[in-house]
Amino acid sequence: MTIGNAIINISNLRLRTYIGFNPEEVEKLQDVVINIEIHYPAEKACLSDSIEDALDYKVITKRIIQHVEEGRFLLLEKLVSDVLEISTQHELVQYAKVTIDKPYA
Fold this sequence. Notes:
Blueprint: E1 5-19, H1 23-27, E2 30-41, H2 43-48, H3 57-70, E3 72-73, H4 76-87, E4 95-101
Parallel strand pairs: 1-3
Antiparallel strand pairs: 1-2, 2-4
Helix pairs in contact: 3-4
């Protein structure tokens, strides 16, 4: 039996950051809701049932949280690009998709 990719979803990660270029956006923290889908080959992890063989998505999530909460962004596109870059830094990641919403925009 061949085991394919695992799909890890990080869903509805609600964070606060400075995002936007209007005066009130530059001065006030805003909510953003982040959803990430990460694909990676999981055959080794499935067969071994060992955390050493799996993608540690907790580390990825912590890096994203730190980057978003400590950052300032003019454009949502920049924030999406940054989160996508962090999501794909691990060598096992083959594909990632990121969506970010500003619920009160």
